[in-house]
Sequence to fold (352 residues):
Amino acid sequence: MMSAPGTVISCEDEATFNTTVKEHPGGLTCVHFWAPWAKASVYMNEVLETAAKKYPHVTMIKIDAEELSEISEEYDITAVPTVVFLKNNKECDRLQTAVAADLVKLLEKHSTGVTASVPKGAVVEKDLNTRLGELVNKADVMLFMKGDRATPRCGFSRQTIEILNAENVDYETFDILEDNDVRQGLKTYSDWATYPQLYVKGELVGGIDIIKELIENGDFEEMVPKKEKPKATITPAAATTEERTHESYEYLVPIINKAPVVLFMKGSPDVPECGFSRQVISLLESENIIYETVNILVNPDVRADLKIYSQWPTFPQLYVEGELVGGLDILKEMQESGDFLDSIPDTCIRKE
Fold:
């Protein structure tokens, strides 16, 4: 599939991808793994379009990481956006940030005979520690989480939002899924390996377990500023709509709770039908987890409704004791930090 120089090739299937890569064996190829629900990866598509015009001899490809999950698995993609750089059909580098200047640096590093400049609109990044210091002090109470307060994208983040709202805390949030530099850098800055992370006046408080402990012993009340509770203004009609919406998803609750650990996936453990589902099954088996699965491919209503119920747009989704933990990238991160087994009931871990 030959393409005009200075354009980004959208590969819709595996055959097109393989053909495109083989057509450019000696040059530099950039493959952007993206997803339409991830704002950062949508932005990176725009950055690639700009970069393609400045680097006409570099082959620029974008593929939907979920739709072409076999390719994603081949390149070990666990988060979007990810840009993989290929030379001679072999990976030479990768980028997991949504920063235009970072893309340019790698293009300059790996392309030959091309004079590069930063695409219009790119911002020169501050020293990361300086930026992190500014972020943790952006508000008196800052929560670094997966998603935002309206759409938390992991069970722990959702629980923390519920606690802060119940305690009437005045806080702001930062979505670490939108900025991989912050996501990775804050772990070192705070010496705290997991998310969410709560900061009060620039000082780390901790994660959800610490917050719960502080509430139980009465210390949390004194630490955080509160906001004035607004008076309830829900009309009878609004309440009826809310009740009806809640009831429409009520059927999912027994499915989510049919076992202590439930995985909603594409396919079955014996025959997973996407690369992400296959990797999660492999992770669960390697940790000797006892679990049950739900095949969303034969349950279209569950597949559509669970995205809304959980406010999590992709699959697989893992639930532990009725609470959403997350997808592949979160599970891998928890496994690497040593927190995964701590989140699983002892009765759901096979003894060797």
Notes: The first strand starts at residue 8 and ends at 10.
